[in-house]
UniProtKB/TrEMBL annotation:
The keyword Thylakoid does not apply. It comes from Streptomyces noboritoensis. Keywords: Gas vesicle. Belongs to the gas vesicle GvpF/GvpL family. This is GvpL/GvpF family gas vesicle protein. Pfam families: GvpL_GvpF (PF06386). It is found in: Gas vesicle. PANTHER family: PROTEIN GVPL 2 (PTHR36852).
Length: 264
């Protein structure tokens, strides 16, 4: 008889009590805490019809299923992070039986233990800078009088866009210098396309910062002050998250953790 499959969300130190009220895993119930040799895995039993190797490969091509699974995964990690330091695991980390979960903890012990010590009391903040699209010019009352007039208008629009990009780049560099003094570490991620992020404007900076929890308010206030300095440039701060970008966690296949915005 095959052993049950367990979906593992994160690794934490054993702690007293249960996960926060209201958090639900993929099975509809609170995640279970499987303790092994001083480490603890937050996990849920899941059906083989969805999470065995072949059906899981098919599901990973279904964007709606993937999004729903990612939301449940991140909700559990966020809930755990509100009460303890959590090392997120890669989306769709699945083990066979509780023995498989314990083997996962053993395989990753050399990375889990130092990561828990290093990240305890710290959270991740995401900081993005966007160059906003220039406001459209009022519709002219008449067509351009000449080809030269048309080219002049087009050149003016291009110069305005280039100016916004230069300002966004300068603000990004200034912002990174300022934030580095209030964070313990920085990770730069690839800028996201507007089609994926759904945000207006062009993403110029996509960074993550590891910040002591007690300094979070100061960090956010500093980032937001920078965001008000330049017209046409927007700063977006998200978090606090579990330290996805800094965990260096492993999954059942030895891979790393995915980030909250899918780019980590």
């Amino acid at each position: 008889m095959n052993e049950a499959l367990w979906y593992v969300y994160a690794v934490v130190r054993p702690f007293e009590g249960a996960p926060p009220d209201g958090v639900r895993g993929l099975d509809g119930g609170p995640p279970r805490l499987i303790v092994h040799r001083g480490l603890c895995a937050a996990a849920s039993p899941v059906p083989a019809g969805d999470f065995d190797a072949a059906p899981l490969r098919a599901h990973l091509e279904d964007l709606d299923w993937l999004a729903a699974t990612a939301r449940a995964h991140q909700a559990v990690v966020a809930a755990l992070s509100s009460v303890t330091c959590a090392i997120p695991l890669r989306l769709a980390t699945v083990c066979r039986g509780t023995g498989g979960v314990r083997r996962l903890l053993d395989a990753g012990r050399a990375r889990f233990v130092p990561a828990l010590e290093r990240l305890d009391g710290r959270v991740e903040w995401g900081v993005k800078v966007y160059a906003e699209a220039s406001a459209p010019e009022p519709a002219p009352r008449a067509k351009p009088a000449s080809g030269r007039e048309y080219l002049r208008r087009r050149l003016g629009q291009r110069q305005a866009r280039d100016d916004t990009w230069r300002q966004a780049g300068a603000l990004s560099r200034s912002l990174r210098r300022a934030l580095s003094g209030h964070a313990e570490a920085e990770r730069l991620h690839r800028p996201q396309s507007a089609r994926i992020s759904g945000q207006p404007g062009e993403n110029v900076l996509n960074a993550a910062y590891l910040v002591p929890r007690e300094r979070s308010a100061e960090f956010v206030a500093l980032a937001e002050r920078h965001g008000s300095r330049v017209a046409g440039v927007r700063v977006e701060v998200t978090g606090p998250w579990a330290p996805y970008s800094f965990a260096g966690a492993v999954d059942a296949d030895g891979g790393g953790a995915d980030g909250p915005d899918g780019s980590r």
